Amino acid sequence: MNRPQVQSKVRTILCDQLSLTPDQLTDTTHLENDLKADSLDVTEIGMSLEDEFQITIEDSVMARIKTVGDAVDYICEVKGIPLSTLTSSEPPKNWPPVYTPAPAAPPASRDCKSCGAHSAASQICSFCGRAL
């Protein structure tokens, strides 16, 4: 199950309980302010959600569920469903990203200022032994 499926089931329950149509509901729809759900309605909605999703919703938690999105997020949290809108439990392709280190830069080579000898990847001239 994924978040859109939970969202669909929550909306169906709300439509049945409050005699609504799905187009009246968004994640930000407030149960009491927008839908005029009273405390009995909220209790019945909570019981229907518990039955549908086989979970227990404490009264203190139900009191904090104010919007449709709150209900969906809580159910997803309890059921261990990611809150993202990915519809698949499969990770995205090319995940995890493969780390490919950048190719090593060739060693810097320098000419000795003292003797003019060419010295590769060193701070000291290999010919005269002086600092480059």
Task: Write up this protein.
With about 130 residues, the chain is mainly alpha-helical. Helix content is about 35%, strand content about 5%. It has 4 helices and 2 strands, in the order ααααββ. It has helices spanning about 5-20, 40-55, 60-65, 70-80; strands spanning about 110, 120. The longest helix has 16 residues, at about 5-20.
Write the layout of secondary structure elements.
Elements: H1 3-18, H2 39-53, H3 59-64, H4 68-79, E1 109-111, E2 118-120
Antiparallel strand pairs: 1-2
Helix pairs in contact: 1-2, 1-4
Could you give a quick summary of the protein structure above?
With 132 residues, the protein is mainly alpha-helical. It has four helices and two strands, in the order ααααββ. It folds into two domains: 3-79, ACP-like (Non-ribosomal Peptide Synthetase Peptidyl Carrier Protein, Chain A, Orthogonal Bundle), CATH 1.10.1200.10; 108-132.
List keywords for this structure.
132 residues, two-stranded antiparallel ribbon, mainly alpha, 37% helix, Non-ribosomal Peptide Synthetase Peptidyl Carrier Protein, Chain A
**What is Rg?**
32 Å
Spatial strand sequence of the major β-sheet: 1-2
Relative strand content: under 5%
End-to-end CA span: 66 Å
The CATH homology group name of the largest domain: ACP-like
* SSE succession: HHHHEE
Q: How many helical stretches?
A: 4
CATH architecture of the largest domain: Orthogonal Bundle
Low-confidence stretches: none
Given this structure, which CATH class of the largest domain is correct? Mainly Alpha
Number of E strands: 2
Specify the biggest β-sheet. Answer: 2 strands, antiparallel
Fraction of residues in helix = 25-40%
Number of spatially distinct domains: 2
According to CATH, what is the topology of the largest domain?
Non-ribosomal Peptide Synthetase Peptidyl Carrier Protein, Chain A
Broad shape = rod-shaped
Structural class call reads mainly alpha
Give average pLDDT, whole number: 81
